[in-house]
Predict the 3D structure of the following.
Amino acid sequence: MKICMVGTGYVGLVSGACFADLGNIVYCVDKDKKKIDKLNSGEIPIYEPGLDEIVKKNYQSNRLKFTQNLSNAVKVSDIIFICVGTPTSKKNKSADLSFVFNVAKEISKNINKFKIIVTKSTVPVTTGDKIEKIISKKRSKKLFEVVSNPEFLREGDAVRDFRFPDRIVVGCNNKKIIKKLEFLYEPLIKKGCIFFSTNRRGAEMIKYASNAFLATKISYINEIANFCEKTKVNIEDVSLGMGLDKRIGGRFLRAGPAYGGSCFPKDTKAITVTADSYKTNLSIIKAVIKSNSNRRMLLIKRIDKILSNKIKNKKITVLGVTFKPNTDDMRESTSLLMLPYLNKKGAKITYYDPSGEKNVFNKLKNVSFSHNIIHACLKADLVIIHTEWDEFKSIDFKKICKNKNLKVYDMRNLYSSDKMKKIGVNYYSIGR
Ligand code: UGA
């Protein structure tokens, strides 16, 4: 099939490259010239494990193309995926749909034969109806069908999530079109993935309801972790014990810092605002948003206690600043509040992140980036493990840190409290 992906962010680029890898001809379109030039010269603009090889392989075999020319890409394609951003609107915390609607307008000008237009961008329920209305101003409804096919790709695991999804959700009111999408995804369905079809609004709702539910699960376990701390219970055991019940499931029950990233914070806000406009109060999701926002400062303020309120001039090393491992994404990361907080209190901060230095911290005095863990930890009074990159999981603190009174604040529970006690490290973790 010939496919056009509009938007080469992590959803459009990963899905486009993976569709090409399944044997389709894929045109990845972006209006950002720099991005397209980079991609055409073999450079991947985002950090996503495994993506590099797939892009290279399919680009070389001419199945994957990068272009700014939306008009041509739409004309030659059978299926067009809208994969542009839906950031939080500055006005009211709903999803800003201007990029999506602009793309719909552009597509409408270039429809020369029947097209399937699919939204992969996360869009509130009824957006598909609005896209249909925009396009039908220019073209007859016989010439196109608007479908919802939400993505469930995690940053850092996006390639794997595309290739081995739990389910593919397609929302469309036309059965023939659903069959065409099923055909596109056949190689994945053959491997055992479930293809679930519903109407268009249903698919739009499934996406938001899924993200909000996962955010709820995380906030739930984070609050239970707070309770565990007071009662000397180990949250890891609670997560495992709960997760063994198949009705609950063990995934997304890891206690840690507030959830971050480009999706959960944005989508939880957007779904409550949309529901409010339908006079429906999503009180549970609103409580989750509040709980997550409180958590940010709760975990940061613990550092005062760990250092007995003497943060000034302390050497603090932060391991990992992105919102999760295997990504360079800083959006809604707790580190964006934590480093300025410690900086203001006079700490001398060194941070290390496998995805490299972050411009956002450049303007902070007494904050420096280190290129390796050993150098970063050498003179630290306190090491904070903020992100669970694999390379932080087996650090020999006694060997690499010179300070005999070293303290370690492990926000991701990567180490055993007992073992750390045995080797004489003052160890603080979450929910235990
Ligand atoms: C999330 C969803 O997991 C994807 O299914 C969805 O497609 C994507 O949003 C999206 O809407 O585009 P992502 O934000 O990339 O993916 O990353 P997650 O792995 O879900 O992590 C989100 C946050 O939750 C991170 O801050 C992570 O540290 C936190 N988290 C996750 C926990 O604190 N505990 C857990 O057990 C799991």
Remarks:
- The pocket of uridine-5'-diphosphate-glucuronic acid is lined by residues 122, 151-155, 211, 214, 218, 252-254, 256, 259-261, 263-264, 323-324 (CB under 6 Å).
- Residues 2-198 form a domain with the Rossmann fold fold (CATH 3.40.50.720).
- Residues 256 and 412 are 5 Å apart (CA to CA).
